[in-house]
Amino acid sequence: MATRSAADPRYAEQKDRPSSWFGRFLLWRNRLLRSGSFQKWAARLPISQSIARTRATDLHHILAGFVYSQTLSAAYKLGLLECLKDRIATLDEIAHYCELEHDAAATLVKAATAIDLLQNVDSTSWTLGELGASIHGNPGVQSMLRHHDLLYRDMADPASLLRSRDNAALRGYWPYVDGNHSDPAAAARYSELMADSQHLIANHILDTIKLTAGQRLLDLGGGTGTFARLAAERFPYATTAVFDLPQVIASIPAKQRDHLEAFAGNMFKDPIPKTFDTISLVRILHDHDDQPINDLLARCFDALPAGGELIIAEPMAGTRAAESIGHTYFGFYLWAMGSGRPRTKTELTSALKQAGFQSVKEKRTHIPALVRVLVAKKPNVILY
């Protein structure tokens, strides 16, 4: 791989380029922080020792992050989380259940305990920690774990992935990204992941909105209808329906189809029913690139009546205290998938207004790191 030399004239041009006072301060700070003599001095000075320790720990967490995620993967694959569900076990019992040698089981148990997947009950026994227990209450996490090996494979060489994602393993897992909507296995994977992960997300969304008597909601790209059904349970005097690809709609169990209005089609190409005053897009936009999203928002605008509402619910980039989930995790995940990108509230608001919507408001959820909700209104009077 070719590397650029500091003697490269392009770097000389950048070095001579004038900068703001803040930019010059940051360059000065970075030169200071990389200085070995400054690092030694800061480590000895009481007032800066705490900061130095925090920065060193933060950096090590970044370096160790992949091992943390693989510890979770091992705990799931080897049955450790299942072994300790609603029970307490000794190391020997864990080793037997997971089919591991004693020392290997000890390594896994100690690693999982350190990241709160497990918790010591006493010196010889363990049960699930808070994070480990929460995984059993969130089947969406388990669905993600089942296919994250593909993402980890792609991230083994992130530089190559960034230069070319055409052959990314994760992209092959979701063939609809490249326009292949006929793969039944992919449709089944998509439907399973949507159904497993929707329950927790749906309740956070439904806590923030209200559907009134007679209101009609169409969940666009709603999989097998989990969100639409939960919305109907929460607001029984409203009407809800789902719209998704034909093979996804066909996978809805017959007993659920009797109580759920369903429309089959491609939301980017086929007509969107115009009999609904509210449309929801739950974790849809971040899976797609800008132009398809702009087209989809325009199609939603046209499908809604004057005064109709569009509900957007998804994790957003730039969420306070969850910045790494947006741009780091979802940024690389969607890049490897081959479509989409995490967007900020400002970017989504701009796209909505470009499509013609106005009065874009955020409805605050209980866990914004998982999902945030924007409600945009179509004007009552359209001026052309």
Task: Give an overview in words.
With 384 residues, the chain is of the alpha/beta class. The chain has two domains: 53-136, Winged helix-like DNA-binding domain superfamily/Winged helix DNA-binding domain (Arc Repressor Mutant, subunit A); 139-377, Rossmann fold (3-Layer(aba) Sandwich), CATH 3.40.50.150. Helix content is 53%, strand content 13%. It is built from 18 helices and ten strands. The protein has helices at 9-16, 21-33, 36-44, 46-77, 80-83, 91-98, 102-114, 130-136, 139-155, 158-163, 169-173, 184-206, 226-234, 246-250, 254-257, 290-303, 323-337, 345-355, and strands spanning 89-90, 118-122, 125-128, 216-220, 239-244, 261-264, 278-282, 309-314, 358-363, 372-377. Helix 6 crosses helix 7 and helix 16 packs across helix 18 (345-355). It starts with 8 loop residues before the first helix and ends in a 7-residue tail after the last strand.
Quick structural overview:
The chain is an alpha/beta fold and 384 residues long.
Summarize this structure as a short list of keywords or feature phrases.
384 residues; three-stranded antiparallel beta sheet; Rossmann fold; seven-stranded mixed beta sheet; alpha/beta; Arc Repressor Mutant, subunit A
Estimated share of beta-strand residues:
5-15%
- Name of the CATH class of the largest domain: Alpha Beta
- Biggest sheet details: 7 strands, mixed
Number of domains: 2
Number of strands: 10
Radius of gyration: 25 Å
In one word, what is the shape?
Answer: globular
End-to-end Cα distance, whole Å, is 55 Å
| Helix content, binned percent | 40-55%
CATH architecture of the largest domain, please?
3-Layer(aba) Sandwich
CATH homology superfamily name of the largest domain: Vaccinia Virus protein VP39
Low-confidence stretches: none
Q: Give, in order, the helices and strands.
A: HHHHHEHHEEHHHHHEHEHHEEHEHHEE
